[in-house]
Amino acid sequence: MTQPRTGPGTSLTPLDDLRTHLTAHLTEPARAWLARALDEAAARSGSHGPISAWELRLAEAGRRCGTDHADAVRVLILHAAQADPDALTRVYRQGTAAERRAVLHALPHLVPGPDALPLVEDALRTNDTRLVAAAVGPYAARHLDAHNWRHAVLKCLFTGVPVDAVADLHHRARADTELARMLDDYAAERTAAGRPVPEDLHRVLALTASEAKES
User: Looking at the record's lineage, which domain of life comes first (predicted)?
Assistant: First the structure.
C-alpha cells in the first residue's frame, strides 16, 4: 500500500514524492480522476462545509484509484483543499476507518500546532491497528506530551502494531527512565501471566538505555 510516510515510521513523505509515485502507478483513468479531484479541491480551498465537494471525492478514492493508493490520494486531496482543523475533524468523525486514517496521515502536512491532537488521542483509544499505526506518525511525535506519547508506545505493544510505525522513536525514547519503568512493568505482567513478551518491547527498552548525549 502507498503510505504517506517513508522508512521505519520516522519521517514524513514529501507530497511531491506521493504525487510522483501515484503518477507512476495509477492507471490513466485514475490519474485523470485524481487530477480533476485535486483541481476541484484547490478551487474550493478554504471552503469547508457543511459537506464540500472535495469531501465526496475522499469517499470515492478507493474505488477510483484502488485501495493500495487511497491513503496517498486522500492526503493529496486534503492538502489541495487546505483542510483546516475543523474540516479535518468533520471528515474524521463522519468518515470511514480508511478516511480517518488518511486524516491522521495528513495532519503534519496541514496543522502546524497541536490543534488536532484530539484526533490522535481518539485513534489511540481504538483497537484498529491501522488507525493506531497512523496515529503514532510524525504529528504525534511532534505534539504528544511525554505522558501520552509513552502510553501510545505501550498501545502499540498491546495491539501488536510494530514500533517501526512510531515516528521519532529513537530520539524520544532515548534515556526515558519513566518509559523504561513502564516497559519493565508490562514485561513483568506478561511473564507472570505466562504470556510472551513482545520482541519490540526489548527493542524500545534498549533505546531507553541509550544516553541522551547521543542526540
Answer: Bacteria
